[in-house]
Write a structure and sequence with these properties.
- The protein has helices spanning 10-13, 22-25, 27-35, 50-62, 66-69, 119-131, 135-155, 174-183, 209-220, and strands at residues 3-7, 39-42, 72-78, 84-87, 102-106, 109-111, 159-164.
- The protein is of the alpha/beta class.
- It folds into two domains: 3-82 and 135-220, Rossmann fold; 90-132, no CATH class.
- 31% of the residues are buried.
Length: 225
């Protein structure tokens, strides 16, 4: 059985689409159909960070047998650098790890269930973190995630590709950018991805059903199976 593993933020999850469209119409599912794979595992989530993408991808790999991993193609969509996540424990267990207690943060949102922590406290926590954050920190963290995921994928025989789309413009140093392209299986990102897919509306920048198809067809051009 061939598995298409995808991870990313809301652009990969399918935010803005109807609930009935999420299973078949998002770009991961359409890539699966184009390539003739058997199933899609989509680990993405709205407001997701690169930190979350690394964590959930690695957790999935840890839970799979060798036979599954060797027949897996991973396509990882990195997102805005400033996003991050933090964990609010229910108890004082060293290895407590309940998915719903990971809080997804970006500049204007702290996404998580209301019973995890007070929304005002989450907002204050976010403001404190962002007060010391700069994009150069985000770039080096991004490189760490690329290196770590690439190493894990290669060690377990997983074919992989990276690409990136973000709400804010990312303009890395040319040497840094060339290092990414030369050292990892990076889908050519020398274009503005937001210009190649149809959006839901002028108020919602997420891809429409047609936009997800456009993304899938573009990504498949770079994939060697």
């Amino acid at each position: 059985m061939k598995t298409l593993l995808a991870n990313g933020c809301s652009y990969t999850y399918g935010s803005g689409l109807k609930e009935s469209e999420l299973e078949e119409k998002t770009w991961p599912n359409q890539v699966k159909e184009i390539l003739g794979y058997d199933r899609t595992i989509n680990l993405s989530g709205g407001c997701g960070s690169n930190q979350r993408i690394f964590r959930t991808t690695t957790q999935w790999i840890m839970s799979q047998p060798k036979s599954v991993l060797e027949n897996t193609l991973a396509i990882i969509q990195f997102t805005d650098l400033h996003r991050y996540e933090y964990y609010v424990p229910k108890q004082t267990k060293v290895w407590e790890n309940e998915e719903e207690r990971w809080i997804r943060n970006k500049i204007d949102v702290a996404a998580g269930p209301a019973d995890v922590s007070d929304p005002i406290l989450r907002k204050e926590y976010n403001e404190v973190r962002l007060a010391t954050y700069s994009d150069i920190e985000g770039y080096w963290n991004w490189l760490c995630y690329c290196e770590a995921l690439s190493s894990i994928f290669n060690r377990h025989g997983i074919k992989y590709y990276f690409w990136q789309i973000a709400g804010r413009s990312l303009d890395p140093d040319q040497v840094f950018y060339e290092f990414l392209l030369e050292n990892y299986n990076w889908i050519n990102n020398d274009i503005n991805f937001s210009c190649i897919f149809e959006r839901i509306s002028h108020k919602d920048n997420h891809a429409s059903v047609r936009g997800h198809r456009q993304l899938a067809e573009y990504l498949v051009k770079y994939i060697k199976v």
